[in-house]
Design goal:
Distance between the termini: 13 Å
Radius of gyration: 12 Å
Strand order of the largest sheet: 1-2
Number of strands: 2
Helix content: 10-25%
Order of helices and strands: HEE
Length: 57
């Protein structure tokens, strides 16, 4: 997990991806004080999936 990321930075990443018309699906997992962002988008005919995690403390 990455402790240097914050929710505000995630909103910037989400807005950045939305501008390029990517299909974004966000899923936040509330395990203790950790969150997880899952991003999926299509690049040509390939579907790419990535995640970003961190702590909200």
């Amino acid at each position: 997990m990455l402790d240097l990321l914050y929710v505000n930075e995630l909103l910037v990443i989400t807005h950045f991806c939305t501008r390029f018309k990517l299909l974004i699906f966000q899923t936040f997992l509330k395990l203790t004080n950790c969150w997880l962002l899952v991003i999926t988008y299509k690049h040509g005919r390939t579907q790419v999936m990535g995640w970003v995690g961190g702590r909200t403390s």
